[in-house]
Amino acid sequence: VQHEFTSRDEFREWLIHGTNFRERVGNLNLGGGGNLRASAHSSSPFCWISNSADQSSSADSVLEFIGGCDDTLDWCRKFAQPPAPSTLSNNNVDEAEMVPDGHTPSHSYDYDLLILGGGSGGLAASKEAARLGAKVAVLDYVKPSPAGSKWGLGGTCVNVGCIPKKLMHYAALLNGNYLHDQPHYGIGVTPESIEANYGMTQDNTAATQSWDMLKQNVQNHIRGLNFKYRVDLREKEVTYLNLLGKFVNEHTIETVDKKGNVDTVTFSRCMIAVGGRPTPLTCEGGELAISSDDIFSLDRDPGKVLCVGASYISLECAGFLRGIGKDVTVAVRSILLRGFDRECAKLIGEHMKDEGIVFREEVVPNKLEKVGEKIKVTFSNGESDEYDTVLAAIGRSGDTSKLGLENVGVAVNPKNSKISAKFEQTSVPNIYAIGDVMDGCPELTPVAIHAGKALSRRLFGGSKQAMDYRNVCTTVFTPLEYGTVGYSEDDAIAEFGEEAVTVYHKYFVPLEWSLSPSRGSHQGFCKAIVNKHTDKVLGLHYLGPNAGEVMQGFGTAMKLGCKFEDIVETVGIHPTTAEEFTTLSITKESGEDAAASGC
How far is residue 151's CA from residue 159's CA, in Å, rounded to a whole number? Predict the structure, then answer.
């Protein structure tokens, strides 16, 4: 369409003031509301795709709003770019088939999108929707844990999950390095100590460790993140409401502030991103236990700890507590790390036992009772012991009980209080769910972030791209770190049949452990699960240092549908533990020794 003006004033009169072409384009309900960006556009050029070459440039002819200079260049690059021989589209990523939700740009509600929950997924979705021109608010209010713990904006990951967990895991690694590695690398060694040990080096004795200092520094870091998130929302023009919300109807939320003042907020669309909370112990005295909501801000030294449960949260907490010198026991009802690869879970358990963690197997707590300053725990086998801290990590449930979902008819799984959804759309079309609160969704922060962004693009950016929940990498930060992507060995056999699955595996000693005698009994491990008929890699599993860093790159390869030949034909980086994947050659069915030898 040939359309230009002789001056900037004429252009702005047409675009903004007189004809107000941008507002007319912004009100068009095309591409899932993607033209909302047009209403905020004020510079030249103003580019769109038209259904006609008519030079009158009627808003009725607009098929899609593109944007300004940068947006138009991006569009042209994508349009002219030939398809790559191997792209994610070849991995059969679905298009989302959404039910019409009744949204129109000319609605009369307070917000285009109201997000319940200020965690990673909700914040990412809010900023993406605002970038696309939507008027967005985030409603976030942290209900104290049963033990009274509270925190700020950012959700579970930032406040009581991934971030403090990784920092405390790192504290444990540092302590392990001091005890088992530093002397053998000559750090802190004196001539007198060498002479006393007949020319040999010995592990260090236990280091002093301040729980208060560790806890305070971790909390200070978290408070800094809380502040940054609030600033980020303001800069992205997202309204932050520190209010507790409950559905009145499908377009109205009743809000309550800290002082008990009640109000209402209306919305065209709502996204539920409230995440989950730890499932409490139901045995007698269960209220004496804390959870992962409490451990990272605990105002006293944990002392002797019982971790109840064999989930990754329980084992991660047990690992870092033991790593900083605490006496730790884990109560296991059945198996470690349900849902993960059985062989890797077994190796993790053996390593944790070597680290001095006690496992009480096939038991659950029957009773907790206060005995002075201690908590006496009686187990289901009749045995008992006393602990300073009992940490329950037996599972998580959707934080939906007080949302008033029954008032709008949103379907919830009664077993876990999580919301049923297809393409993140609930049984009520204009109400959506993302992240841990969605039934069947992997409980991982990056999953919530990606799902939230993808949903905002569909709702306000014209995208049809569905969230791809397949082949998502994750890492369990146990003392022996575990990185994984794709099928476990058992699940692959169940899905494809034992005759169709080959497992390549290897044990190895990470080079950085090789000078430390006390590390000698420990080994790293990796395996690739492969479809015999197609050579496609079905799953990768790694046990060793820096598991998350190792696995991240392989996640991209898996998403692109890599074959085993692609991995072994890749030149490895030497000397690293990641390169062990590129040298895999021994299959389980061969019965050969899987221990690595030399370079």
Answer: 6
Residues whose CB is less than 8 angstroms from the CB of residue 107 and which lie 6 or more positions away in sequence, other chains included: 268
Q: Which residues pair with 256 in a beta bridge?
A: 244, 262
Name the band, by pLDDT with cuts 50, 70 and 90, for residue 88. very low
Taking only the tens place, the pLDDT of each residue in 243-279 is: 999 999 999 999 999 999 999 999 999 999 999 999 9
Could you give the angle at which helices 489-496 and 342-354 cross, rounded to 10 degrees? Answer: 170
8 Å CB contact between 41 and 24: no
Is 574 a catalytic site residue? Answer: yes
pLDDT in tens, 136-155: 999 999 999 999 999 999 99
In whole angstroms, give the CA distance from residue 448 to residue 436: 7
The Cα–Cα gap between 40 and 21 comes to 11
Cα–Cα separations (whole angstroms), residue 429 to 334, 421, 424, 432, 599? 40, 10, 10, 7, 58
Say how far apart CA 41 and CA 131 lie, in whole Å.
12
Cα gap 351→478, rounded to integer Å? 9
Looking up tokens 């533990």, which residue turns up? 577
DSSP state of 2: -
Calculate the CA dihedral of residues 315, 316, 319, 321 and round it to 10 degrees: -110
Distance in angstroms (rounded) separating the CA atoms of residues 487 and 529: 8
Farthest CA pair distance, the chain: 94
Residue with tokens 């994610």: 88
DSSP symbols for 54-76: -TT--GGGEEEEEESHHHHHHHH
Contact by Cβ (8 Å): 268, 103: yes
**Residue 150 exposed, middle or buried by CB count within 10 Å (0-12, 13-18, 19+):** exposed
Q: Where are the alpha helices (DSSP H) in 461-562?
A: 489-496, 547-559
Asked if the bond preceding 45 is cis, omega within 30° of 0, the reply is: yes
Question: Rounded to 5 degrees, what are φ and ψ at 44?
Answer: -100, 140
d(C-alpha 301, C-alpha 581), whole Å: 41
Does the pLDDT value for residue 31 go beyond 60?
no
Instruction: Find out whether 548 and 530 touch, Cβ atoms under 8 Å.
Output: no
